[in-house]
Amino acid sequence: MHHLGATRSSLKHDHLLQTPDTFVRIPLPGANGVDFIVHASPQLGANFTQMTAEFSAGGTLVAASGQRFIYVLEGELDLVIAGDRHPLGPGGFAFLPAGTDHSFTAMEAAKAALIEKIYAPIADGPAAAIVIGNETSVAEVPLMGDSSLRVRSLLPNTDEYDFAVNTMTYDPGAGLSMVEVHVMEHGLLMLEGGGIYKLGDSWYPVEAGDFIWMAPYCPQWFGAIGKKPAKYLIYKDWRRHPLGA
């Protein structure tokens, strides 16, 4: 139903809240039977691309030119690398360094979060390796000692990797201990529950399915509201000097 232009979506100079009622699906090269919702991109001012990929049964996606991270939201994807098959169900994830020959095929209708970024190497540094896993096998760590707010780190925290992807889970009523202002930018997909997000000078109700982009130095804070935990998947650029050296 059309609501005369009403939406929670909002675009400001340092952030975007994109809600499902405003999603537009497009086709992209390298995919067959897959629709993409582009959430963050260089056109927005981001230094990465984050999308939701919606696979029809049998839909396929081949390798990208840059590095790629995928997190399965619904259904099952068959990841093939050098002839080896790696089934990924909900919560399954994979990191593929740039140049990795791979493909994804949907065993059934499926949905996944897809993050792509041009790699920023360190001179004479080690190369990033393939990472495949499931979120449930990653240990939860309390954030700053607060057991009501827990983090799972899905990529190794080493110099080989120039970005991080985590899930964060908040018990009802839990919130960040401070308003954060930092050099990293974020892409955030709400997975479960909801709450209130402070972005810049604005306050927004958010819920599962919403996407948020935060530019570097955007003031940010989140608190969970409701009777069940709130959870999101969050990207940040990481472990690189601001001057690119």
Automatic annotation (TrEMBL):
- Recorded superkingdom: Bacteria
- Sorted alphabetically, which Pfam families does this protein's record hold? Cupin_2 (PF07883)
The protein's UniProt keywords, in alphabetical order, are: Hydrolase
InterPro entries for the chain: Cupin_2 (IPR013096), RmlC-like_jellyroll (IPR014710), RmlC_Cupin_sf (IPR011051), UGHY (IPR017627), UGlyAH_cupin_C (IPR044697), UGlyAH_cupin_N (IPR044704)
Q: Where are the transmembrane segments?
A: none
Q: Which NCBIfam families match?
A: ura-cupin
The protein in question is named (S)-ureidoglycine aminohydrolase
From what organism does this protein derive?
Telmatobacter sp. DSM 110680
